[in-house]
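Possible regression after last week's pipeline update?

I re-ran a chain I had predicted before the update to compare outputs. Posting the input and the new output here so someone can diff against the archived version. Not blocking, just want to make sure nothing changed silently.
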Amino acid sequence: MSKKMQITPEELEQAYQKLLQETETAGYHLNPDLEFTKDLIESLLINEARYGYQACPCRLASGNKEEDLDIICPCDYRDPDLTEHAACYCALYVSGKIHKGEAKAKPIPERRPGREERLKKMTANSNSGEINNLAYPVWRCKVCGYLSARNEPPEVCPICKAEKERFERFL
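New output (post-update):
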């Protein structure tokens, strides 16, 4: 029988404040529903104690860090989910409109591929040293030079706060 991990209110508040500061500094937003957000952060802390890393609380982690790299928060799917659906899969991260209360987070489809597909991709990526074999296009902020590998440029540059239209396709 396993014991439920207990996170103190002080630990939770400290983790929340740290994540809030990091998130806002990087141009992202946390879900404005404080209770919901703190429940997710508590789950991240529990996963960190359990696995040694903060696996997404809304996905089943394997316990193998290399296999779970794509779901360590913030997961690889956060930015495409924000672009397409205005929230990440677990709705910890949300768009500016949701953050301001102008829209609500809605359930979104899971974009994480199955285990077999992920393992094939991991093997293919480790055997290829070619820059042309990138999984995502690389976007460059024309203001500060920040590089971001994803399908679309970020809503706001996490470094200089330039808007999305100030990015150009780099690779």
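Follow-up from reviewer: compared with the archived run. The first helix runs from residue 9 to 25. Marking as no regression found.
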